[in-house]
Amino acid sequence: MAERKNMEFDRPGGYAMPRGAVAVQRELAAKLQQDAGEEKIRLYGDELPPHKPRLGKSPRPAFQLSDPSTQVYVGDCRDVLPGLPERGKVDLVFADPPFNWDVPYDEWKDGMPRREYERFTFDWLDACIDVLSPAGSLWVNIPDDTVAEIVMHLKRRGLLMINWCIWHFRFGQHRKDSFIMSKVHALYFAKSASDRIWNPEAVLEPSDRATVYFDPRTLAKKEHAGMRVPMDVWYGKNWGRIQGNNRERRPQHHNQIPEVYLERVIRACSNPDSIVLDPFLGSGTTCTVARALGRRSIGIEYSKTNAKSAFERIREGAVRVDRDAIYSSPFFKPRKAGAATREKFRKAVESSASELQKEQQ
Question: Which helix (H) or strand (E) holds 71?
């Protein structure tokens, strides 16, 4: 217990950390900013000059819907973002950029030299930071190749890392020369640890204590008995890669993200009146889910063909936006508890329900 008193729940994931952990992160971010200004921290992409946006008239959306407002722009996000009238008002940016894996995208060259790709990455990250509101969050979906560089750049820009999540899937491509890749990193950064939008109650899922171990102690909690904030490794039903005949599959689009992934992020890190932005709209998942949840949204897509396809999907609506679909734990496969355990848990459930009924009378 003595050790427990020196711990506190500083992080949204709910696990204990030494007191001042957030303060340490802030100090580190400030030091990284200072070192970057003094050119002590140099990344490969820093060898090239930053992108100069093609500034002109304010960009106009190529496609749009109302109630809630949904706008789709066509162009390079590095050019579109600086001219948006919503700059400084966006509460959530979700970015799933090209991975530079030589994917045959429509119009986009996905095989840059490494130094150019890093420079491109830093440029769009900076443009995204500039559109965020003071309460805003930035999520980046990225594989192993560039995750370290992105983390370092965001920290030297003064953003705070809230979580380093993992999206895990079982349908990885076979390889012989190394372990099969079965994950992508989901980086969660924010401008402020205390002022950011964070709605944990909107993404609660049944806890293992309640659904796997049938532990009656979980029902003694005053709030959200038997529930918990999701952990930072995401997987499970409807969380796999969008392939083949999947209901969400859109033809001619590469590397689709499942709707449940975006639903969790949007519910947790935005409010109904928030603006959600995706600088690499792709198949349109972000705006589709944002619209289904009543959020205003902005999508930017380099290819006009892809933008048109994404807009058609946005109009058609989401396929799986459903509270029962966003759980990422294996709770739907509970262990086979013995009769005594099940009976103990049943009585605890009845007792908890009775206490709740008394409080409401």
Answer: strand 70-74
Task: Indicate the domain borders of the chain.
Answer: 2-360
Contact criterion met (CB below 8 Å) for 84 and 93: no
The values of phi and psi at residue 289, to 5°, are -70, -40
| Residue 216 identity | P
Task: Give the integer Cα–Cα distance in Å for 139 and 11.
Answer: 16
Q: How confident is the model at residue 23 (pLDDT cuts 50, 70, 90)?
A: low
Please tell me the predicted confidence (pLDDT) of residue 226.
81
Cα-based distances in Å from 234 to 48, 229, 253, 261, 330: 36, 12, 23, 8, 10
Q: Residue 347: in which H helix or E strand, if any?
A: helix 339-360
How far is 144 from 167, CA to CA, in rounded Å? 12
Residue 1, pLDDT > 50, answer no
Q: What is the pLDDT of residues 125-139, one digit of tens each?
A: 999 999 999 999 999
Query: Which 8-state DSSP code applies to residue 61?
Result: -
DSSP-assigned letter for residue 101? S
CA distances to 35, 37, 114 from 185, in Å: 26, 28, 19
Catalogue the E-assigned strands of the chain: 7-8, 17-18, 63-65, 70-74, 90-95, 132-142, 160-168, 183-190, 205-206, 227-228, 233-234, 275-278, 296-301
CB–CB of 102/254 below 8 Å? no
Fill in the amino acid letter for 55: L
How sure is the predictor about 109, in pLDDT bands with cuts at 50, 70 and 90? confident
- Give yes or no for a contact between 278 and 253, defined as CB atoms under 8 angstroms apart: no
> Which of 224, 276, 242, 243 minimizes the C-alpha distance to 94?
276
Q: Which pairs count as long-range contacts for 14-17, CB under 8 Å and 24+ apart, including other chains?
A: 14/228, 14/229
Torsion of CA 5, 223, 164, 20, to 10 degrees: -30
Whole-prediction pTM value?
0.81
Tell me which DSSP letter residue 163 carries: E
Structure tokens at 179: 């372990």
Q: 2-360 falls under which CATH superfamily? A: Vaccinia Virus protein VP39 (3.40.50.150)
